[in-house]
């Protein structure tokens, strides 16, 4: 398909690069514009008797990279992108929930016996209470914060040029990402262009900052990267892509 309207990808790296690649594979012009920068913890993560790892972001993998005592543990991830990264890092048993924190909790509960100890590695900002859900299901959970994010210094030059030139499609992966995108747009004195943007959000939760501004958003059918891209495909078709 072909579509002249650019697609701005706002998620952090390394996920941003994967989404940009997926958008371009669809024949759509994609622009990388990470709205957050990742600051990783230098803490050495130990297994601490854990029976499994739970990862809600690929950014958490950096904390356990080259950490021998953890490589034998089964890994449960919130999405396939993180699962792929875990496999590339040498984890042999990796299961993707393909959804959100609630889906991840259910996947772990279906796979592991109750009473097992799950080590959850995450960022400072968490979408959903994975530990709380797992504890209700009978698991012991240790949560380690291994990275945090901060606002990017500004819109990328290509993203700013696209916003100044005309309409664009903006992919939103989280509520924090949506808020930070709007903050950067405001800082660039481009607030007036927001109304002509087509937002696609990975979930209703992610779209809340947009709705607060009175902006509409297309919502993915499921809180997953695959569903987000499917929503992009549908929007592209409606806009006249062959």
Automatic annotation (TrEMBL):
Tagged with keyword Lyase: yes
Q: Name one GO biological process term.
A: methylation
Q: What class of enzyme is it?
A: lyase
Q: Which InterPro entries match?
A: 4pyrrol_syn_uPrphyn_synt_sf (IPR036108), 4pyrrol_synth_uPrphyn_synth (IPR003754), UROS/Hem4 (IPR039793)
Extract the coiled-coil ranges from the record. Answer: none
Q: Where is the Tetrapyrrole biosynthesis uroporphyrinogen III synthase domain?
A: 19-229
The record describes the protein's role as: Catalyzes cyclization of the linear tetrapyrrole, hydroxymethylbilane, to the macrocyclic uroporphyrinogen III.
- Recorded family membership: Belongs to the uroporphyrinogen-III synthase family.
| Protein name per UniProt | Uroporphyrinogen-III synthase
- The source organism is Glycocaulis albus
């Amino acid at each position: 398909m072909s579509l002249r309207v650019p697609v701005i990808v706002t998620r952090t790296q390394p996920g941003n690069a994967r989404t940009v690649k997926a958008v371009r594979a669809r024949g759509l012009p994609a622009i990388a514009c990470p709205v957050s920068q990742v600051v990783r913890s230098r803490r050495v993560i130990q297994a601490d008797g854990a029976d499994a790892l739970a990862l809600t972001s690929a950014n958490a993998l950096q904390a356990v990279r080259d950490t021998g005592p953890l490589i034998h543990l089964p890994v449960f991830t919130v999405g396939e992108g993180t699962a792929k990264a875990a496999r590339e890092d040498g984890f042999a048993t990796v299961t993707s929930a393909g959804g959100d924190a609630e889906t991840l909790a259910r996947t772990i509960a279906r796979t592991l016996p109750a009473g097992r100890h799950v080590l959850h590695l995450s960022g400072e900002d968490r979408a959903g209470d994975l530990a709380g859900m797992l504890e209700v299901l009978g698991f012991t959970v240790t949560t380690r914060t291994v990275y945090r994010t901060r606002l990017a210094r500004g819109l990328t030059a290509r993203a700013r040029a696209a916003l100044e030139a005309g309409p664009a499609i903006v992919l939103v992966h989280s509520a924090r990402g949506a808020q930070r995108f709007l903050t950067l747009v405001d800082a660039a004195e481009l607030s007036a262009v927001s109304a002509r943007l087509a937002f696609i959000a990975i979930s209703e939760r992610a779209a809340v900052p947009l709705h607060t501004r009175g902006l509409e958003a297309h919502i993915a059918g499921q809180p997953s990267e695959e569903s987000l891209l499917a929503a992009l495909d549908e929007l592209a078709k409606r806009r006249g892509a062959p």
